[in-house]
Fold each of these.
Amino acid sequence: MTIVKKASVSLVKITDYDSEKIHNALETCLLNLGGIEKLIQPRSNVFVKINHLSPPSLPEKAIVTHPLFTRGVLCLLKQLDVNITVGDDIYSKEEDGFLISGYRQICDELGVRLLNLKEAGFQEVRCKGELLEKIFISPPVLEADFILNLPKLKTHSFAIFTGAIKNMFGVIPHGLRHRYHREFIKNDVFSQMLVDIFSCVPPHLTIMDGIVAMEGEGPSAGNPKKVGVIIASKDAVAVDAVALKITGSNPMNIYTIQNAHERGLGIGRIEDIEITGENIHDVEVRDFKHSTIAIGLFKRKLPSFLYASIQNQLTFIPEIITENCTVCLECVNICPLDAARFKEDSVRIEKSLCIHCLCCHEVCRYQAVKLNQRPLGKMIRRVSSLYEKIVSLFT
Ligand code: SF4
Ligand code: SF4
C-alpha cells in the first residue's frame, strides 16, 4: 500500500489591508500551523523574500507583495529574538526603488534591514537540477537559517502563474534571469528551470498575500482582484496548489506545481493537502481570470509531438500600442534578443527575432504591450477554459 504524504496548509479569510485585520489574520493563520514561535528558532537569521517586481510600482496595482501585509509579518517576527533581512533583487531608474512601493518606509519604521540583493553580490552554488548545474545566489539568502517566502497571488502570461515557487527566481542576479529567458524559451522548460532554482533555496515557511491578487495579464499588466485570503504552509508547493484551486484551476495543470510535485519538492495534488482554517469552497473565486489556460493539461494528456504544436499555437505574440507607449525604454533594455527596439522615435518589435518570452510585457507599466493570440490558440484557450470551469464545479 502506498502511503501518500500530506501537506498542511492554513487558510484564513480577510477583507482588506487594514493593519489590525492583517495582524489578527496572520496570528490565526500561523496558529493553525502551531504558532510562529514554534516555527522559527530564537536568534535565527531570517531572510524575508518579497515579490518586488521591477521596475517598482505602487502597492495598489497588486504587482508587489503588499507592504502592509509584509509589515504585519514583520511585526510578528519582531516579537521573536531573530535577525531580519527583507529583500529582493530589483532594478530601478530611481535611486531607491523601494521608496516607490512603500517598502523603504515600512522597514525604516520597524528598524528592519531592507536589501536590494544586487548590493550584497551573488555566490556560485551547485544546483542538482534537471536543467541547471550551478547558479548564483545572494549570500544573505544562502546564509539565512530561515527563509520566509512572501509571494503575491498573481497570474503570469508566460509561466501561467506566479506564486511561491516562482518567487524564488528573484534570489539570482538580474543578468542571469535575463539569460535564462533567452535559453529556456518554452514555458514548460522555463518552469522546470524555476523549479531548479526553488530546489536550491526551498523556503522554510511561505505566507501568500492573496488579499488583493492579480488576474488577467499578470504579472504586471493584469487587474487587481479581491480574493480575500492569506495562505500559509511549510510546503510552498502546497500554497501554490491551494491558490490555484481557490482561483478555479487544477493546480496539477500548472507546470511549476506539476514539476515540483513530481520531484518530491512539495505536494501539488489538492487531494493530498490538509487545509485548516477556512473551508476552501467558501473562499473560491470562480470568476477569476487566469492569463492563459492551464496548458499543462495537454502536457499530461497528449503525445509530445501533438503537445508541442498546441504549445506553439498558444504562444502570445506581443505588439506595442504606440498611443500608450511613453518611450520609457524598459522593454528595449530587458529584451533578451534585442527584438524590442527604439527606431525612428518609437519602440517596435522585430517579429523575426522575438522568442515570445514576454519580458517586454512584464516590465511595461503603461499597458503598452498588447498580447495577441493565434486564431487556433484562441479557440483552444476558450474550450480549455470552459472545460476547467466545468471540472472545478464538480471537484
Ligand atoms: S512599450 Fe512600455 S516599456 Fe516599452 S517603451 Fe513603451 S511604455 Fe516603455
Ligand atoms: S520583444 Fe518581448 S517577447 Fe519578444 S523577445 Fe523581446 S522581450 Fe521577449
Amino acid sequence: MKDKSLIPQISLGPFQGITDHIYRTLFVAYFGGVDKLYTPFFTAIHKTDAKNLQGAELHPDKNDTSILVPQILSNDGAEMLRFANFCARIGYKEINLNMGCPFPRVARKKRGSGLLPFPDLIDKILFEYFENPPIKLSIKCRLGYQESNEINELIPIFNQYPLHEVIIHARTGKQIYKGIANQIAFITIKNQFSKVPAYNGDIFSNEQFNHLQALMPNVDHFMLGRGLLADPFLAAEIKGQTFINKAAILREFLEALFEARLNETNYALTSLGRMKELWSYLRWSFDDPVNIWRLIRKTNTLETYKNAVSKVFAESEWKGAGFTQKSNPDYIS
Ligand SMILES: Cc1cc2nc3c(=O)[nH]c(=O)nc-3n(C[C@H](O)[C@H](O)[C@H](O)COP(=O)(O)O)c2cc1C
C-alpha cells in the first residue's frame, strides 16, 4: 500500500442512469478505493418531502450517508434549501449543486453548465442558501459554458461563500464530453480559489493519475468518472491495492448488480438497458472492445444478455484502464 498521507481523496463521479444506489453499494463492496460518491442529480424538488426524494436512491438504509453526497440540479435557492433540509433530516452532511450538466435542454433553462454565464444568478442562489444553510454545500461546475475563461468571473463569487468545495470538470459545457479536458486551464486558475478546487476530467489510468497529481500537488481531491466505469479497479489500484483474478471479481460484481436491479424493479428491460450502458464503458478495458460491443449491444432478453456476458468472459481478456484506448483518436470503434 502507498503512504496514505500522500494520496488525495478519490471520488466516483455521478452518472445518470448508471451509478444508482445498487451500483454504488456494490462498487464499494467489490472494488473500493473511493472516499466519496455522488448521486446523479435530483431535480424538481417542489416540496421538502417531494415524492422523488422518497425512494431508495437517498434512503439511509440503502446508502452510506457518511460517504454519499446527494446532488441537485437547480437555479433556485429555495429549492436547494428544500433539498438540503430533506437530506439533513435523513443524515447527510453535504449536498452538491450541479453546474456542469451540458445538455442543451438543461442549459437553455440556465441550469447545469447553462448557469455559468450568469454570475449574478449564481451569487443570488448562493446568498439565499448561505443565509441559513442546513448542511454543507459543494459545487460541481465546468470552466464555462461557451468559453473556458467564464470561470474567472465566478471565482470571486465562489470565494465570498463558505463552500465546502468546488469540483471542476475541466471542459466547457459546449464541449459536452468531447475533446480533451483542459488541464492547463485548471492549473492556471486553481490557486485563485479560497480553497483549491477538486479536479475532474479524463483520468483513465494509474499513470495519467500520477502524472496529473505531480502537475497539481496541492489538489487534495480527484473525481474519476468514465475511467472508473471502464475500469472499476482503478481507484483502489491508484491507492496501491492489488487484486488477484480481476475478471472473476468483475464478473461476480456484474452478476450481483444485474440480480439486485432485477429484484428491485418490475421492468427487466430497464435493468438490461442499464447493464448495457455500463458495458458501453467496460468493453474498453477488454482486449476486444469492438466485438464485445457487437455482442452485448444487440441483446434484448435476460437470456441473450447472460449468454453474451458468458461469451465475453470466455473469449476476451481483461486489460484494464480501458478508456485511455477510447480516448485515442486513432482508435476506431
Ligand atoms: C451519461 C452521463 C451521465 C452523467 N450524469 C451526471 C450527473 O448526474 N451529475 C454530474 O455531476 N455529472 C454527470 N456526468 C458527468 C460525470 O460525472 C463526469 O463529470 C464526466 O464524465 C467527466 O469526468 P471523466 O472525464 O472522468 O469521465 C455524467 C456523464 C455522462 C457521460
